[in-house]
TrEMBL record:
Region (2-C-methyl-D-erythritol 4-phosphate cytidylyltransferase): 1-245
Pathway the protein takes part in: Isoprenoid biosynthesis; isopentenyl diphosphate biosynthesis via DXP pathway; isopentenyl diphosphate from 1-deoxy-D-xylulose 5-phosphate: step 4/6; Isoprenoid biosynthesis; isopentenyl diphosphate biosynthesis via DXP pathway; isopentenyl diphosphate from 1-deoxy-D-xylulose 5-phosphate: step 2/6
Annotated InterPro entries: IspD (IPR001228), IspD/F (IPR026596), IspD/TarI (IPR034683), ISPD_synthase_CS (IPR018294), MECDP_synthase (IPR003526), MECDP_synthase_CS (IPR020555), MECDP_synthase_sf (IPR036571), Nucleotide-diphossugar_trans (IPR029044)
Protein known as: Bifunctional enzyme IspD/IspF
Species per Swiss-Prot/TrEMBL record: Bombella saccharophila
NCBIfam families recorded: ispD, ispF
Stored Pfam families: IspD, YgbB
Site entry (Positions MEP for the nucleophilic attack), positions: 165, 218
């Protein structure tokens, strides 16, 4: 999709991505396991439905807040620059309220919030731009399409009335609002409404309409998957490239040095010596960065943070790993897993391995289950056996979109 930048750069924009619904009318599987999967996590063009929605929103927003407690949600959004998911509620308005509360708790809350259904995967960039532009003049804006079909009221299979379609529109998402207003209305009112525009309407605030898009389909029934596949494969809208696996290996060595703290995998380890190096000499993070850069064909850590540059002297290596993670996301990729081995006689790594995994996962913005840290010795052989230094190896698996070359 065309990632047209948001025209509203002077205001901070956030989006809620709702993923708490079950989709009772949808079933795309024959086994009990497949039938139990919520519709937003089914695969579409090789990726989860909700991931497509997130990728459509991210170029336009400063924050993307997923809402939902399904264990598949973090996995579906892995590697993307999103906030940690917050649990949703029993009803849609409960989930929106939970997301708004999470945004309100940020150090700098947004000025504008978009509310989008995770089951709407195909959102043209131009539609999002129309909503944001209209929010320069209105407190609430929704995309919608005029009703073109004749509408009938039916009871027990018999038509009871024909509904005039003049002035009727089909509402879509993302719907956009002034964040302070929507947050205040959700705080004061617990009314169950099908969308947030209804909350503004009930409170007497006008809501504007911009033209929606026919391909902005909400996945409701199984047949919608086929419609969405066709939309993504049309000539005007190229299909989302499939994710292909890439593997990277890293290896690094640092000698022990007096008078320095020992930093390994982002945490300080009690030891009588630290490691020598231009930065903080975190051998675990350095080898992990090299593995990531290798998988992405981006050289090594020295290419990005040369030791000849004084600005990196004594630098916290966390910055290097943050950069490596951002590079994965900038390519539309995701880290599948990382496996590190620390090679040393002392200190003992086992007591710190869990904390190391948690810190590395935090820096890479992935779940700790995707990170493994373990240790081994060299049986008193070589420089590590003589306790002259520490070595580390790393292997990573990354999924990136197929570039076609």
């Amino acid at each position: 999709m065309d990632a047209t930048p948001s025209p509203i750069k002077r205001k901070r924009v956030a989006a809620l991505l709702l993923a708490a619904g079950r989709g009772r009318r949808f079933s795309a599987g024959t086994t009990e396991e497949q039938a139990a999967i919520s519709k937003q996590f089914h695969l579409l063009a090789g990726q989860p439905v909700i991931r497509h929605a997130a990728l459509a929103l991210l170029p336009h927003v400063d924050y993307l807040q997923p809402v939902g407690s399904d264990p598949l949600l973090p996995q579906a959004l892995a590697g993307l620059d999103v906030l940690s998911p917050v649990p949703g509620g029993a009803e849609r308005h409960d989930s929106v309220r939970a997301g708004l509360e999470a945004l309100a708790a940020l150090p700098t809350p947004p000025d504008i919030v978009l509310v989008h259904d995770g089951a709407r995967p195909y959102v043209p960039a131009a539609l999002i731009t129309r909503v944001l532009e209209a929010l320069e003049h209105h407190e609430g804006v929704i995309p919608a399409l005029p009703v073109s079909d004749t509408l009938k009221k039916v009871k027990d299979g018999i038509i009871t009335d024909t509904v005039p379609r003049d002035g009727l529109w089909r509402a879509q998402t993302p719907q956009g609002f002034s964040f302070p207003l929507l947050h205040a209305l959700h705080t004061r009112h617990r009314t169950a409404l099908t969308d947030d525009a209804g909350l503004l309407e009930a409170a007497g605030h006008p809501v504007a309409i911009v033209m929606g898009a026919e391909d902005n389909i909400k996945l409701t029934v199984t047949e919608d998957l086929m419609r969405l596949e066709r939309a993504m494969q049309s000539q005007e809208n190229q299909p989302t490239p499939p994710l292909l696996p890439r593997v990277g290996l890293g290896y690094d060595v640092h000698a022990f040095a007096e008078g320095r703290k020992l930093i390994l995998c982002g945490i300080e380890i009690p030891h009588e010596k630290g490691l020598a190096g231009h930065s903080d000499a975190d051998v675990g993070i350095h080898t992990l960065c090299d593995a990531i850069y290798g998988a992405l064909n981006e050289g090594d850590i020295g290419r990005h943070f040369p030791p000849t540059d004084e600005k990196w002297r004594d630098m916290d290596s966390a910055r290097f790993l943050i950069h490596a993670g951002e590079l994965i996301r900038s390519k539309g990729g995701m880290l599948v897993n990382a496996d590190l081995t620390i090679i040393c006689e002392r200190p003992k790594i086992g007591p710190h391995a869990q904390a190391m995994c948690a810190r590395l996962a935090e820096l890479l913005k992935v779940h700790p289950s995707r990170i493994s840290v373990k240790a081994t010795t060299s049986e008193r052989l070589g420089f590590t056996g003589r306790e002259e230094g520490i070595a580390a190896t790393a292997a990573v698996s990354i999924m990136v979109p197929d570039s076609g070359v």
